């Protein structure tokens, strides 16, 4: 795996041509596997003999993974993404109340309000359409970051710092000392958030998690509280940020598809789903571990091997999506069920999927309704990519509004 990230699709196509499961080498020469075929990944994500807990990570348990390894946080953070069985159900049940259909729908008005405010500010930053403006910085980032921080009761003063530290947490080319510093700093910030909500509880999710912990000491440990907040901050804004960014890039490159939506022949929900498939916000997500030697699509994955879920590859798997899987086509799912895995599958399916979909749908509809001639100001090759093979997007998106 290239630690510097870059566009994954060409490499994914080469891997898929060889099979649905691929041996890969992670930073630090750590041997791993990636499940990249759609059907194989769907099977693997819900297999009863696949675990998330790091006690099943053989190399880690044998002391072969050093501190500062850029992917160590994904394995060792205490929260839903590294829990199995009863622990996973306990942690997920505490958070799931914030993401019921009713609670998410209740956020719609606030999402629309924030979107309108950001579009006004975007127009000012772009000097009424006279100059290019970074859509990612001024619109795609502050929308999901603002919403998730309100949901968690995180004060605005922490938002920029949390985004910066989140980027370092998911980076795969980061130096060991920088990785350890980023982890220390984000734990310190989230501990300050928890302390503030303990002193002054509100109607936010952090206060509810703290209350659950105080009512029953076995419900949520201190490490689990911080780990849960870490997960919610990163997953609650990075993925939606990438989704909005990637959708704008796709629509600007495929003006015929944009016209379908603007003329009512496709929906903004279609845009979100096709972007999730065609250019998944997450490329390769760490980690799962077979608890026994496991054969997936004819390939043996040895017990205790760290496995990446290859969402960006599965989204363009021609065996599942047809020979035109590389084509961005908003009519692909017309009249049929959506078939992509970019929000996960099985017990660990993305808890915030409804919120992410709503935020992205509102953001894209309002953006292109107000600026139907919006376009990316540079070529695709000029857009700087994320320095990570986990996240899949670009670092900046300069656009002209008119």
From TrEMBL:
For this chain, the family text in UniProt reads:
Belongs to the cytochrome P450 family.
Entry-linked PANTHER family = CYTOCHROME P450 YJIB-RELATED (PTHR46696:SF1), P450, PUTATIVE (EUROFUNG)-RELATED (PTHR46696)
Lineage, highest ranks first: Bacteria, Bacillati, Actinomycetota, Actinomycetes, Kitasatosporales
TM segment ranges? none
Q: Does the keyword Iron apply?
A: yes
Protein name per its UniProtKB record: Cytochrome
* Gene3D superfamilies given in the database record: Cytochrome P450
UniProt keyword list: Heme, Iron, Metal-binding, Monooxygenase, Oxidoreductase
Concerning InterPro entries, the annotation shows: Cyt_P450 (IPR001128), Cyt_P450_B (IPR002397), Cyt_P450_sf (IPR036396)
The record, for CDD domains, names: CYP107-like
GO molecular function of the protein, one example? oxidoreductase activity, acting on paired donors, with incorporation or reduction of molecular oxygen
**The species this protein was found in:** Streptomyces niveus
Q: Which Pfam families match?
A: p450
Q: Does the keyword Metal-binding apply?
A: yes
